[in-house]
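Hi U.,

Before I forget, here's the chain from the pilot set. I'm dumping it here mostly so it's searchable later in email.
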Amino acid sequence: MYLEQINESLTFHLQNVAYSRFTQDADYQDIISPFTRIYLITEGCGSLIIGNNKIALEAGRLYLIPSFTSCSYHFREGLSHYYIHFRMDQPNGLSVYNLFSIANISAACDLDYKLLARMVHVNPDLQLPHHHPRIYQSKPWMNKKVEYHSAAQHLETLGILKQLFSRFLASGKNYPVANMLKYNIQAILLYIQNNLEQNITVDELACIACFSKDHFSRVFKTIIGLAPCDYIISKRIERAQFLLLTTHLSHSQIIDQTGFRSISYFSRIFKKQTSISPAQYRKKLLMNRIVF
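Structure:
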């Protein structure tokens, strides 16, 4: 069952869009981006590794790489593609990745080619400064805001972006959105998102939901797929990843903004969730970053 309310707070923010062709082979290893990316391969081939999955890049297909997902690329000489980088925000605490099953690959139709060509036409100056992610993910470029010249350009751009993203929503599996709304879980998710730096307890969340602690925990896990404490940790790690990637904040400052009790606890949980420590995570990014 689909309910219109679930997308009311989902907002898209375009970062880059262009058409590009590789004139030589290119390999980019262990890339982590704060942006979600969509590619349409128009010619040539390559490969994409997301986690343990190796995906062939083929002409005529759309590819989606979610934000903060570690991946590696191999682009063969002659590969041509449209690319889009964008962010999605859910001010009410909901996440599209919690609501739907998201595919990484979709067959492109004729309309998709036209939509991307049109998007590049109406946004002609949003190409990346360089192919290499270590350059275009430097802070000046990541913090750059898109300036639209008119309301029409803005609306058309967002309309095209939403159409393209919809190609990756799998039709076979939706999460129990009706129950999420019935039990007002979106208010709980919003509260968590806005108070990650605070000491959030299950008792506190159950009180907001007007449930007993045990009943609230069962309902929350049934709908979200995680126990409340595990969900809170996942959101804190997500924010920590963003801060490690996009700021120079110290670990102590990041702890203040993410609600972890100590540096040792933060490091242990971060490594459990990401397989590397916060220090290794930041060092790995800095070692591979090229200053543009």
